[in-house]
Amino acid sequence: MKRFLCRFRRDDSGAVTSDWVVISVGIILFAAATIFSVRTYTVALGPAISTEIDKQMN
C-alpha cells in the first residue's frame, strides 16, 4: 500500500486534466456571477426606464 501511494504521488499524468477542469469551473462561475449581476440590475432598472420613455413620449 505504501508503495502504491508513493507511485500515485509521483505520477502526474492527470495533472493537466485537473488543471483544465479547475480553470473551466472558474470561468463558468465567473460568467454565472456576471450574468446574475447584470440580470439583477437590468430587472431593477426596467420600471425606471419605462417611466422615462413614457415621459418623453408624452
Structural overview:
By secondary structure, this protein is an all-alpha fold. The chain has one domain (16-57). 90% of the residues lie in helices and 0% in strands. It contains two helices and no strands. The protein is rod-shaped, with a radius of gyration of 25 Å. The termini are far apart. The mean pLDDT is 88.
What's this model, at a glance?
This protein is mostly helical and 58 residues long.
Give the fraction of residues assigned to helices: over 70%
Main β-sheet, in a few words?
none
Provide the β-strand percentage band.
under 5%
- Please give the domain count: 1
* Overall shape: rod-shaped
- Cα-atom Rg, whole angstroms? 25 Å
Contiguous helical run count: 2
Q: Name the poorly predicted regions.
A: none
Beginning-to-end CA distance, first to last residue: 81 Å
SSE series: HH
Residue-averaged pLDDT, rounded? Answer: 88
Structural class: mainly alpha
Tell how many strands the DSSP assignment holds. 0
Q: Any descriptors?
A:
58 residues; mainly alpha; 2 helices; rod-shaped
Write the layout of secondary structure elements.
Blueprint: H1 2-10, H2 15-57
